[in-house]
Amino acid sequence: MSNSTDPAVEPVTRREHDVSWSANLEQPRHAADRDLVVEEAIDAIEATASGTHVNLVTHGDHGRPEPYLWDVLESTVEGIELEYVDRCGCGGHVTRVYVDGGS
Q1: Strand runs (DSSP E) across the chain, as ranges?
Q2: What confidence score (pLDDT) does residue 26 get?
Q3: pLDDT digits (tens, 9 = 90+) for 71-96
Q4: Sheet strand arrangement including 21-25
Q5: Would you call 101 exposed, middle or buried from its count of C-beta atoms within 10 A (0-12, 13-18, 19+)?
Q6: Given phi > 0 = left and psi -120 to 50 = alpha, else beta, which region is 65?
Q7: Around Cβ 35, how many Cβ atoms within 10 Å?
Q8: Whose CA is closest to 56, among 68, 38, 74, 72?
Q9: pLDDT tens digit string along 14-69?
Q10: pTM for the whole thing?
Q11: CA atoms of 25 and 29, how far apart (whole Å)
């Protein structure tokens, strides 16, 4: 997993997740930095156990995640399946990422 250059910023993943979970990628720092969203989305997927899924909740300021996130994820991380879930009440977007047959 990558490390933030700012020690005051807590990473989206702090441990391995062996059950399905959600990664909050809609903090103000995510709104300001689309590359950070992509980096932490990859970290979240890599921290998710095979056979489960992670919901990536991305900031609404970036719009739907397919154009800027999906191709990068599919070309970087093997064995995943992506599904757009919905727009959440706070304005963000939810992408469900199944890891190695988690669907």
Answers
A1: 21-25, 53-58, 80-87, 93-99
A2: 94
A3: 999 999 999 999 999 998 888 999 99
A4: 21-25, 53-58, 93-99, 80-87
A5: exposed
A6: alpha
A7: 9
A8: 38
A9: 556 677 899 999 999 999 999 999 999 999 999 999 999 999 999 999 999 999 99
A10: 0.82
A11: 9
Q: Amino acid identity of 85? A: V
pLDDT greater than 50 at residue 3: no
| Contact (CB, 8 A) for 82 and 48 | no
Q: Indicate the domain borders of the chain.
A: 21-99
Q: Which residues pair with 24 in a beta bridge?
A: 57
User: Which pLDDT belongs to residue 20?
Assistant: 86
First-residue to last-residue Cα distance in the chain: 24
The residue type found at 84 is Y
Contact between 13 and 44 (Cβ < 8 Å): yes
Report H helices in the chain. 28-31, 34-46, 71-76
